[in-house]
Amino acid sequence: MNMKCAIAGLAASLVLAVTGAQAQEGLSDEIRQPTLDKLKGRQVVFVPMSMSFDLPEGWAAVMRKDAERRGYQLDIRDANWSTDTGTRAITQAITEKPDVIVVQNFDVTSYARTLKRAQDAGIKVVQVNMRSTYQTDAFVGADWYGMGEYAANRMLEVCGKSAGKSGKIALVQGPATAAASVYQLNAITEKLKDNDDIEIVSSQTGDWDQSKARGITQTVIQQNPDLCGIIGFWDVMDAGTGAAIQESGKDIYLITSGGGNKTACQGVENGTFNEVISYDVPGQGRDLISAVSILLQSDEPAGSEQFVLYTPNKIITKDTLGPESCWDLDVLKN
Fold first, then answer.
1. How many angstroms separate the CA atoms of 185 and 211, rounded?
2. Domain with 304 in it: what CATH number?
3. What is the mean pLDDT of residues 191-195?
C-alpha cells in the first residue's frame, strides 16, 4: 500500500512539474511550421471573369493578404469578360504547372475540357461561385439551387393568390448557361410548377446588364399591370430592374442576390430592392483560402479529393439591415 501511495505521489508531482513548466514556457505547436512549410513558395493562379466588379475584387483582396501572410505566390490572370481570353489564360497556366488554379467560370460548359486538362496535368483546381459541369477538386461559392428555393418560397408568401395577390411574377436571369441562372431557374420552376398560387408570366435573360434588365422589366410591367413580384439573379444587374419598377410607380416586390457589397445595402435602404440574398464575399474569400490551403497541404494527387463549401446566405431587408450587413472593398483591402 505504501509503495502504491509513493508511486501515485511521484506521478502527481511529475504532472504538476510539467504543468508548471508549460505555464511558464508555453506549449510548442508542433504542426505549425510543417504546415507553413507546405504553403511557402507554392504557386496559385486565379482566373476571374473580370477584375472590374466587386466579386473577384473581394476574393482577390482576401487571397492577396493570405498569400503574403503564408508565403505562397498569387498570380491573377484577368479574363476581361472573354471566355477565349480565360481559356488561353488557363491553358498558359497549365504549361507553367502551378500548384492550384482558382477559376470563376462564365458558364457551365466553356472551361470544362480545359479544367480537366489542368487536373490531368497534376494541377489542383478550385472553382469559385460559378460552377462548371466538370467537377474539380473543390467548389467554393453560392448554393444557387438553395437560393432559388428560398426566392420561390418568398414569392409564394408575398405574391401568392392565397395571400390575396395576383400571383403573377417575373424572372430576370443572367446568361442562360451561367451556373447562377441554370441552378436557380431549376429550383424556382421545380418549386412552382404545380402550384396554382403563382404564375411565372415572364422569364428572360438580362445577361448581367443593367440596361437590358431595365428594358425587360419595363415591357413586362406594361404587359402585366397587376404584376406582383420579380426574382432577379444579380443585384448589380437588378439595379436596372429596380429602376424600372420605381419608374412604374407600382408596388412590385423585388428579390435579388449578390455578394453583399455596400451597394446592396444602399439598394435595400433606398427601396430599389425589397430583399437581397447575400452570399457574402468576405466569407467566401475565407472559404476560398481555406480550400487552397487544404489542397496545398494534401499529398493526394489532383482529382482524387472533391469537396464543396457552400456559402451561408445572409438575407438583407430593411428589418435586418445593420452595420455588418454589407462590406466595403476599401476596408477589405486593408
1. 21
2. 3.40.50.2300
3. 93
- What average pLDDT does the segment 15-24 reach? 54
Beta bridge mates, 102: 46, 126
Nearest CA-CA partner of 238 in 265, 267, 280:
267
- Residues 51 and 163 both lie in one domain: no
Q: In this structure, what are the phi and psi dihedrals at residue 230, rounded to the nearest 5 degrees?
A: -135, 135
Q: Are residues 135 and 218 in the same domain?
A: no
Question: What distance in Å separates the CA atoms of residue 75 and residue 44, rounded to the nearest whole number?
Answer: 6
Q: How large a percentage of the chain has pLDDT more than 70?
A: 93
- Within a domain: 317: no
Q: What angle do CA 312, 209, 89 make, to 5 degrees?
A: 75
Say whether both 179 and 61 belong to one domain: no
Taking only the tens place, the pLDDT of each residue in 265-311 is: 999 999 999 999 999 999 999 999 999 999 999 999 999 989 999 99
Report which of 99, 86, 105 is spatially closest to residue 41, judged by C-alpha positions.
Answer: 99
- Asked if residue 17 is part of any domain, the answer here is no
| Three-class secondary structure of residue 24 per DSSP | helix
Same domain, 124 and 49: yes
- The amino acid occupying position 164 is G
Are the C-beta atoms of residues 320 and 45 closer than 8 Å to each other?
no
The pLDDT score that the predictor gives to residue 25 is 82
Q: Tell me what pLDDT residue 288 has.
A: 98
Q: What is the mean pLDDT of residues 5-30?
A: 61
Residue 267 lies in a domain: yes
Q: Are residues 251 and 178 in the same domain?
A: yes
Q: Measured between alpha carbons, how far is 2 from 57 in angstroms, rounded to an integer?
A: 71
With left for phi above 0 and alpha for psi between -120 and 50, is residue 203 left, alpha or beta?
beta
Q: Is residue 11 part of a domain?
A: no
C-alpha–C-alpha distance, residues 141 and 134, integer Å? 15
What is the Cα–Cα distance from 166 to 334, expressed in whole angstroms? 48
Kindly report, residue by residue over 120-130, the tens digit of the pLDDT. Answer: 999 999 999 99
182/148 Cα distance (integer angstroms): 10
